[in-house]
Amino acid sequence: MSTVLVVEDGLTDMEIISSYLKQAGYSVISATSSEEAQTKIDANKPDVILLDVILPGKSGYEICRELQNNPNTNQIPVVFCSTKNSEVDKMWGNLLGAKAYLSKPVDKEELEKTLKQLINK
To answer: Which residues, in sequence order, are CB contacts of 46 under 8 Å at separation 6+?
Structure first.
């Protein structure tokens, strides 16, 4: 079973995304801040990281950049999941190494399709 780390500070979004992932058969780990995310990444080495852009502490963009620059984590695909969904935001996420950018509210089918493409590579 593949493990997905969901980094999201909004309780409602966290619950919706987590329930979509569990229904699709994924093991879900959650974090609500950049510090908690780093601890869980180190402890669990997830298969995919779903990352909000606006978080307490470091932004999702900063976390993504750090993950991409770390040889221990740069193979983990990052998917941004945010209300910040302009073309500039998506381009920025892409430049930082994210593999996909999903807009909130997250579409269940789009989420599942994106994860299948990333995990089954």
So the answer is: 3, 4, 5, 29, 40, 76
Phi first, then psi, for residue 81 (nearest 5°) are -135, 100
CATH number at residue 48: 3.40.50.2300
pLDDT (mean) for 57-83 = 95
Structural domain of residue 53, as residue ranges?
3-119
Say if residues 98 and 63 touch (Cβ distance below 8 Å).
Answer: no
Q: Name beta bridge partners: 18.
A: none
* Overall pTM surpassing 0.90 (yes/no): yes
Q: Residue 12: helix, strand or coil by DSSP?
A: helix
Is the alpha carbon torsion for 13, 33, 110, 26 positive or negative?
negative
Q: Give the residue among 106, 101, 77, 107 at the shortest CA–CA distance from 87.
A: 101
Our separate counts of H helices and E strands in the chain read 5, 5
Domain count, the chain: 1
